[in-house]
Specification:
Number of strands: 4
Subcellular location: Cell membrane
GO cellular component, one term: plasma membrane
CATH topology: Rhopdopsin 7-helix transmembrane proteins
CATH class: Mainly Alpha
Keywords: Cell membrane, Disulfide bond, G-protein coupled receptor, Glycoprotein, Membrane, Receptor, Transducer, Transmembrane, Transmembrane helix
Oligomer: single chain
Membrane topology: Multi-pass membrane protein
Protein name: Prostaglandin F2-alpha receptor
Largest sheet: 2 strands, antiparallel
Number of domains: 1
Number of helices: 13
CATH architecture: Up-down Bundle
Length: about 375
């Protein structure tokens, strides 16, 4: 997501007063930024490799749509690391003297646009993924017959286009992005806004982000409730439930990470933009930005660690520790009384026949190792 850099990665005001300490501290800041960017690139690249491998192997339309959005989310995070991280290193290489290397505010504008775009895009994707999975579980026939692959790709393009439009609004409305107090990044003009438009732009960013988080919470809650209800009523005994469990675990983890990392920042932006007093709020803003930096580091590890193979090992450990025979565990391990027929193209709706039918049985698929 947004490539924010933590306060500890930035040169403090003490750097300006003590020249000798400045060079050491700033050098450490650049090194820390490079390490952070490298870790993020490695994590997202590894997660992307796993998702692409699964996407190429999958023959089920429902999960293929999920993997398409998940891969797009990881690609967005990866590009955020590359582009915004490179811009930060560029700013540090000029000792953050924006007046010298950016007199026309071109770099600052590019920086601000990238910050907003790579912040909103993953939040939007997380919300759409939750809604798509909710429809796939609660309305499987509608999902299979109506939501075709080209529809998912068009929706993905619209998400990126909308995020880019919001990021370009300050430029289109002649409200340029502003160098923040730490002088290491650019964002909306929030300190002492001149008029209602200066207040509207950061508020729009925050409200859209909070709306995406709310969409994720509602969608994931409905999906989880539907699966638990079917399981408790013993109506859904197909082996294909394992892939639903995998995706739900990943969605819940993404939602939790996004809420913890992004919630304080989005709320703080609203407070800073609408506060009546003029006391500086940069310290608290940088504090919540530090939390937001962990989002793009943790996101890829959701797909790396919460894969079916890893979840199976977790179930095995729990089964060994508690020493109980779990009926659901054996359904995870072995095939249920279910047969699946898919089209040769791999986009047809699966035909699952279980001993006990249920409204959710259309979503059952064969076990994918």
């Amino acid at each position: 997501m947004i490539r924010f850099f933590s306060p500890e990665y930035e040169c403090s005001d003490f750097c300006r007063s003590e020249v000798s300490t400045a060079s050491t501290t700033c050098s450490q800041s650049v090194s820390a930024s490079v390490v952070s960017m490298s870790v993020g690139i490695f994590s997202n690249s590894l997660a992307l490799f796993i998702l692409i491998k699964s996407y190429n192997r999958i023959r089920i339309k429902s999960k293929a749509s999920f993997l398409l959005f998940a891969s797009s989310l990881v690609i967005t995070d990866l590009l955020g690391h590359l582009i915004n991280g490179s811009l930060v290193i560029f700013v540090y290489s000029f000792q953050k003297k924006w007046e010298d290397f950016d007199p026309h505010r071109i770099v600052c504008t590019l920086f601000g646009v990238c910050m907003v775009f790579f912040g909103l895009s993953p939040l939007f994707l997380g919300g759409v993924m939750a809604v798509e999975r909710c429809i796939g579980v609660t309305r499987p026939i509608f999902h299979s017959t109506t939501l075709a692959s080209h529809h998912m790709k068009r929706l993905l393009a619209l998400i990126w286009l909308f995020a880019a439009l919001v990021a370009m609004l300050p430029v289109l409305l002649w409200r340029p992005y502003k160098v923040q107090s730490s002088r290491s990044w650019c964002f909306f003009h929030m300190d002492k806004p001149k008029d209602w438009l200066d207040m509207l732009l950061p508020l729009l960013f925050s409200l859209l982000g909070l709306l995406a988080l709310l969409l994720s919470i509602v969608g994931n809650t409905l999906t989880l409730s539907a699966l638990l209800q079917a399981r408790l009523q013993r109506k859904h005994h197909c082996r294909g439930t394992s892939y639903h469990i995998e995706m739900i675990c990943q969605l819940l983890a993404i939602m939790l990470v996004s809420c913890v990392c992004w919630g304080p920042l989005l709320i703080r932006i609203i407070i800073v933009s609408t506060r009546a007093t003029e006391e500086p709020g940069s310290l608290s803003l940088l504090t919540v930005i530090r939390m937001a930096t962990w989002n793009q580091i943790l996101d890829p590890w959701v797909y790396i660690l919460l894969r079916k193979a890893v979840l199976r090992k977790i179930f095995e450990v729990c089964h060994t520790c508690f020493g109980t025979k779990s009926h659901d565990f054996h359904h995870w391990q072995r095939s249920g009384h279910c047969s699946v027929e898919t089209s040769n193209s791999g986009i047809g709706a699966p035909d699952c026949r279980c001993l006990s039918q249920s409204p959710l049985s259309d979503t059952a698929i064969k076990y994918i190792s």
